[in-house]
Amino acid sequence: MKKILLVEDDIDIVKHLISFLENEGFFVYHTDGQTKAMDMIENQYFDLILLDLSLKEGHGFSLYHQIKSYQDIPIIFLTASNDEYSVVTGLNLGADDYISKPFRPRELLSRISNVLKRYQRQNIVFKYQDIKLNTLTGQVLKNNQEIILSALEYKLLLIFISHPHQLLSRDFLLDEIWNITGEDVTDNTLSVYMKRLRQKIEDDPKNPCYIKTLRGLGYKLGD
């Protein structure tokens, strides 16, 4: 199921949108300000952002720049119906689409579907500190130098980099590998590939600074 982050401070709009979109099969997360939104984006992966320009804290255009400098996530602006300047500015910035309030939920759903379809045909670049992963080319860079990973090492890194700062249990990793590859990886095999991945991306694999072990709990990318 696709995950949407709704950045909006009008509680009535929030309630109606969450109810409608969840009934349509989306997971919807909500926040009302710029700082909180970036905290959420840096700690979990979203498929799309619905971004109001007028926020409780910060501004939609400023948050747009922050998001796009961190990760290329599709963004649809929510604008006031008579605010032509904001619509033009948002599109010039590179926004994927916009919709004016008040809007019809079915129209918004159509715009969301169209934007997601466009992004499915494009590459997604994940970034974490000095590591970049391009899902279209399968290329992994560290400090702009390519790192050659095996297929399973790449898939492991993709799981971590799309769930930054989250504690991931070994069972979760095994399930995700199965979902991605259809391969039934054993616990011992996971340990082997975790070691190999660290040898390739860490400066000091014995003291990892990217993927850290939380004994008895699992692993986490970052603090």
TrEMBL record:
DNA-binding region extent: 123-223
Domain of life: Bacteria
CDD domains, per database record: REC_OmpR, trans_reg_C
GO terms of biological process kind: regulation of DNA-templated transcription
Domain OmpR/PhoB-type as annotated: residue spans: 123-223
UniProt entry tagged with the keyword DNA-binding: yes
InterPro entries noted in UniProt: CheY-like_superfamily, OmpR/PhoB-type_DNA-bd, Sig_transdc_resp-reg_receiver, WalR-like, WH-like_DNA-bd_sf
Single GO molecular function: phosphorelay response regulator activity
Cellular component per GO, a single term: cytosol
Keywords assigned by UniProt, alphabetized: DNA-binding, Phosphoprotein, Transcription, Transcription regulation
Protein name: DNA-binding response OmpR family regulator
